[in-house]
Amino acid sequence: MMTLSRSSGSRSSRWSIARAAYIAAFFAFLYVPMLVLCVLSFNDSAVVGFPLRSFTTNWYRDALASGVLIDALWNSARLGVASAFIGTALALMAVLGLRGSPGIKAAVLPLIVLPIIMPAIVTGVIMLIFFGLTGIKFGLFPTTFIVHVTWVLPFAFLSLYPRLEGFDRSIEEAAMDLGARPLTVFGRIVFPLIRPAVISTLLFAFTLSFDEFVRTFFVIGSQRTVPVHLWILVTEEVAPFLPAVGVIIMVLTLTIAALGFASSSIGSARASRLWSAKEFAS
Amino acid sequence: MLAGPAMTWLFVFTIVPVAMLTVISFWSSTAYGIKPDWTLDNYRTIFGNYVYVGTFLRTLRIAGVTTLLTLLAAYPMALVLSRLRGATKTIVLLLVFLPFWTSYVVRSFLWLPMLGRNGLLNFLLLKAGIIARPVEWFIYNEGAVYVGLVYAYMLFMFLPIYQSLDKQDRKLEEAASDLGATPIQAFRRVVFPLSLPGVFSGCTMVFLFACGAYVTPQILGGASTMMAGNVIGSQFQISNNWALGAALSVTLMVTVVACFALSAWRQGLQLFAGARQ
Predict the structure, then answer these.
(1) Consecutive 10-residue runs of chain A (282 residues): their mean pLDDT?
(2) What domains, with CATH codes, occur in chain A?
(3) Residues 93-132, chain A: which have Cβ within 8 Å of B?
(4) A220 phi and psi, to 5 degrees?
(5) Entry pTM
């Protein structure tokens, strides 16, 4: 009896050591490369890598000096805002049109999710062919913008649909019965209720656009978004300030994503309060 | 009616380009551009040439192995996390998410300063006296591509598995142990089977993404580890052979969409429930 419990005790302690080792390895795998990049961005060496020499912030100065990074940031920002708004607006209209008719929704769902399923490289190639054959000039607008709207639209649809699916339509019907026009119903009743969902979808769409690379790369011509700039630095220019650019982009994307996360969790908290209030009322 | 604009948009910018691609895949490329002369030559080139067939087989193999490695790396973490509670859970969950909020291209090139000639791995091994001079084969090979792909796609595996484990009723596990099951038996017979839908969506997503990988093999792979995406890209960027590139794209697209349709048919379209939150 005693030996048995002791052996099972040592087994469970071995088990917990293995567990701790696995957790440590998992997070080391995720975070060590990011830390290395941060460290190297301050390393005063013309070669990207080890050993570490003295501390410098010059790579950040160099990264920002040419203005190409700033231009790329500006391009990514306006592209992200434009495609997030248009993509979310189109998706919202589609959701409003398709809720209540699950049959039609099921029929068109394959078309809606197709841009997500298609390999990025294939989307890049088909849009290159499409714009090439129709003679539309490659650049930020309209070619890259069109590609980004197509990319964010399905995600916006999938993010908005569940929030409108269980929507109680009797409120809207009541408003209609009282003489409100459809646009008034949308503006006064539907939109205020789904506003948190719309805002988090917009931010989500923005991050998707901001992060998009492969599809963009084939249709952007000679202009640069942030990922395209980084790609050219990695594959062609191999500049010593590369880690600094990487860190700047990492910090920016983290901030945007954190904002999105915060807004969506506030949004869902508000939505759940709303639903519990509704349940309480009924 | 309200769905009209979105459907029109998707039709014009997805279906029409796919149709154009399919048509061009039956044309031929000349020095002056593409020529509409209806031929199967591009497909004959692809399926008659071991270089292209080999590329597709390698792509499927790399995608398969990546899926397996990602599953092995992510499943235990999903299990550990689903058993945590309160603030610890939120913090650890955020720690898992955080790296995936950074830009995809950044995430892909992070492994250059880790595995490269002047990278951390070489530096540490040199310092420890295990190697005498920097090792070149840590990078630009299939192993490095696996590291990069697992790193890039981990979250897509983690998330659906975590969700399916997290919503499990813990009473089932307790019931199993009350009935005399050891923790391992309870896991094998109760917890794991119930998490299979999550495993299945995670594997589908990672496999699909890995099939179309372009950035990671381009940065971390070598000439012998080029995947379908890289071969397609080079037809448009280097050899300017649009017709062959189109046929290669159609082949990749059919492969991927068929894989997806197969799993969607088994799973319903809930595959995207956990996608990128």
Answers:
(1) 50 85 95 94 87 89 88 95 96 89 85 90 94 92 96 92 78 86 85 86 89 94 92 84 91 83 65 44 38
(2) 64-281 (1.10.3720.10)
(3) 93-94, 96-98, 104, 108-109, 111-122, 124-130
(4) -90, -5
(5) 0.87
